[in-house]
Design goal:
The chain has 176 residues and is an alpha+beta fold. It is 24% helix and 34% strand.
Length: 176
């Protein structure tokens, strides 16, 4: 008989009635947790994980500013400006490279992303080496890339992204 009495003893905090009574006694706390706590946790996770899930893809956004064929004519480099943030925002510079004979723009490979600094220029140094100039008096994100193996990300997200690791051999980013 004693054994059966002990098996029925449960801690008070496990019962569902105690949970219901806590909710009834603390409705303001529950509302605070749901309205403030959960969004804070969700935003923290979003901004913490965003660099690791970056796609490094322009997704067809922006306006073509300049294009230039490689010396052998096999590739075409295209410089795009993508505005962000409305009146207080800025412009992100993207450089895509595609085969000249392939008219399908979806086959373009993004190799460069950085904040627009003012002085932009593209120059082919060889058939597969492209120099991208993006500079101002205060900042310089000029880089020379092997279009088959390297990418440059001014934010550094693509270098730590799990989704882009198979798209390049070497990822360049500004020194922190």
């Amino acid at each position: 008989m004693e054994h059966s009495d002990q098996s029925k003893i449960k801690p008070k905090w496990i019962t569902t009635s105690s949970l219901k009574s806590w909710v009834r006694r603390h409705p303001v706390s529950l509302i605070f947790i749901l309205m403030i706590g959960l969004p804070v946790v969700a935003l923290t996770l979003f901004f913490t994980l965003r660099p690791y899930l970056s796609t490094f893809d322009r997704s067809g956004e922006g306006d073509l500013s300049f294009s230039m064929s490689s010396p052998n004519g096999e590739y075409t480099a295209e410089l795009y400006g993508v505005p962000y943030g409305g009146a207080a925002g800025g412009v992100t510079i993207w450089v895509d490279v595609r085969k000249t004979a392939d008219p399908n723009a979806s086959n373009a490979k993004s190799i460069y992303r950085a904040e627009f600094h003012g002085g932009n220029h593209l120059e082919w140094e060889s058939d597969n080496t492209l120099r991208i100039e993006n500079w101002s008096e205060y900042s310089n994100e000029t880089v020379t890339l092997n279009i088959d193996e390297e990418i440059y990300d001014g934010w550094g997200w693509a270098c730590s992204s799990l989704r882009t690791k198979d798209r390049y051999v070497r990822c360049l980013a500004p020194a922190s």
